[in-house]
Amino acid sequence: MKFINRIFAVVMLACALCGMRAGNTMVIARLDSAQLLMGKTTALHLEIVQDKGKIGIFPLEQSDTLSSAIEIAGKTVPDTVDLGNGRIQINRDLILQAFDSGMYVVKPIPFIVNGDTAMSKPLTLKVMPVKVDEKQDIHGFKPVIEPPFKFFDWVPDVLIDYWWAFLLAFLLVGGGLCYYFLWYKKGRKFVMPGRKRLPPYEEAMINLNRLKESNLWQNGQEKEYFTGLTDILRVYIDRRFEINAVEMTSTQIIDTLKKNDETRAVNEQLSMILEMADVVKFANVRPLADDNEMAFKRAVNFIEATKPLPVADAKGKKGGRGNA
After folding, report:
1. Which of 2, 70, 108, 180 is deepest in the core (most CB within 10 A)?
2. What's the distance, CA 216 to chain centroid?
3. Number of CB atoms found within 10 A of residue 37's CB
4. Is residue 119 a contact partner of residue 27, using CB atoms and an 8 Å limit?
């Protein structure tokens, strides 16, 4: 009996090595073992010989079964060997597995090149059952194993997917609360320290010099010239006398300054400047060059006449100016 089985194996191996040709392509298939224990695996070795440079298609590439009883448990990466004379050999293995005992035929393995199909010889695989000792005790199912505790298993998926958004929201809320309790609630101002502003007189004189150097009225921009001149005076009056001259009309400014002892003497000069500015800005009247220069001189006279006088400090020395 053993002699017959050996002869059968030799015949099957010879058939596998012969292979079937399609044009210049040949497919050779052989099994590691013609016998397989149920549930175990064995390798089906494939050797594909073809012309170099041609692209072949392996139909079983996406398949996971050879038949209803034989499954493909895995595939190895193809290995290409150059045979010379324009021929190559592609080697790869299919890992077979079966769970039902019996004698099964491994159908020919196809390989397609340029529309021609080459196929291997069919093989026979014997799947043997697992021996069971009937005298042994029958064991029940194993107890259920509790999975190990992992913290992230209890965290909702939305927190894991959008953790960055929750972190950003937490930082913003935390920063806002810190600002409220540490700064805003205590009356502090969270601002960057800025440059100290010049006193009203010095600031106004610097702005007048810049206006003069711009040569606006000399270039036909009388309206822009008087707008700049009156804006400088309004800001100066606002800071010097704490009067909201920026938001007042010309008439309101004049009426308010008439009540101030420091400006009563030069109020007429300011009134002339504001009246001329209103005529130029709203009546589209073009003043003469003398009128432009006179308005500038009156503005300088008004600021010089109303600038804060030096005050003596506690030791009798002259200190800084008044309202800064």
Report:
1. 70
2. 50
3. 15
4. yes
pTM of the model: 0.40
What one-character-per-residue DSSP string does 204-268 give?
A: HHHHHHHHHHHTTGGGT-HHHHHHHHHHHHHHHHHHHH---GGGS-HHHHHHHHTT-TTTTTTHH
| Mean pLDDT across the chain | 81
3-state secondary structure of 323: coil
Beta carbons of 301 and 307 less than 8 angstroms apart: no
Are the CB atoms for 126 and 70 separated by under 8 Å? no
Residues contacting 64, CB < 8 A, separation 6+: 71, 72
- Which residues sit opposite 105 in a β-bridge? 124
* Angle (CA) 15 19 21, round 5°: 150
pLDDT (tens digit per residue) in 167-187? 999 999 988 888 777 776 655
> In the numeric block, which tokens belong to residue 121?
């010889």
CA distance 42 to 135: 31
pLDDT(110) > 70: yes
Listing DSSP states for 98-119 in one string gives ESS-EEEEEPPPEEEETTEEEE
The 10 Å CB-count burial string (b at 16+, else e) for 128-143 is: eeeeeeeeeeeeeeee
128: which strand partners?
37
Element at 94 (helix H, strand E): strand 87-98
Number of H helices, E strands in the chain: 8, 12
pLDDT reading at 322 higher than 50 = no
Per-residue model confidence (pLDDT) at position 188: 56
**Angle, nearest 10°, between helix axes 289-306 and 222-241?**
10
Angle (nearest 5°) at CA 134 between 132 and 137:
105
Residue count of the chain? 324
pLDDT tens-place string over residues 44-96: 999 999 998 888 888 888 889 888 889 999 999 999 999 999 999 999 999 99
